[in-house]
Amino acid sequence: MKSPLEILIHSGNQGQPYWFLDALSIVRLSGVQTGGTFSLIEDRLPAGRATPFHVHRREDETFYVLDGEFTFFDGKRKITGGPGTTVFLPRDIPHGFRADTAGRILILTTPSGFDSFVAEAGEPATRWDLPTPAAPDYAKLTEIAARYEIEILGPLPE
Questions:
Q1: 3-state DSSP assignment of residue 128
Q2: What CA–CA distance (Å, rounded) separates 64 from 83?
Q3: For the chain, N or C: smaller number of CB within 10 Å?
Q4: What are phi and psi of 152, to 5 degrees?
């Protein structure tokens, strides 16, 4: 039986870039491309960039640190790691992370959906570098997140 999906090979600056919460988020593989099974996003982050503490109700997230140092929070623990660190965060578990240094991570979400959230909550990047830092609009972010069954819980628990 023939698969309706195609083999995809991306290299270099391929993928759809967005500016999302002071990061350059590159959707390397979207849910459309994977038949909804997963999405793969590369985040390029400045030092100090932190996500809100939040919980996904539809997808699991796996993070792989490519460069830099990151701290991941799950409400009970802080896990700090550098290149090669892998963190799996199942759905329904509150979490967030902070870039302790400038760095890059891969975010694999299963199933897909988070890629669509990034596209809607972010803005298409006009260049392949970090956006000009700006204070996030948490009311807008919370409203959009709710449509993707993501709950924004507040700042990271330090």
A1: coil
A2: 8
A3: N
A4: -90, 120
Per-residue pLDDT, 14: 85
Domains belonging to the chain, first-starting first, are 16-153 (2.60.120.10)
**Tokens matching residue 78:** 């802080």
> Could you say which residues of the chain have pLDDT below 50?
1
Question: Vertex 100, ends 88 and 143: CA angle to 5°?
Answer: 65
Contact residues for 69 (Cβ-Cβ < 8 A; gap 6+): 80, 81, 82, 99, 100, 101, 103
What is the predicted pLDDT for the residue at 25? Answer: 98
pLDDT for res 3: 60
C-alpha to C-alpha distance for 13 and 16, rounded to whole angstroms? 9
29/9 Cα distance (integer angstroms) = 10
Q: Give the pLDDT score at 9.
A: 72
Q: What is the pTM of this model?
A: 0.92
Q: What are phi and psi of 150, to 5 degrees?
A: -115, 125
Query: Which pair of tokens denotes residue 125?
Result: 């990047």
Residue 54 belongs to what H/E stretch? Answer: strand 53-56
Query: What is the token pair recorded at 153?
Result: 């819980």
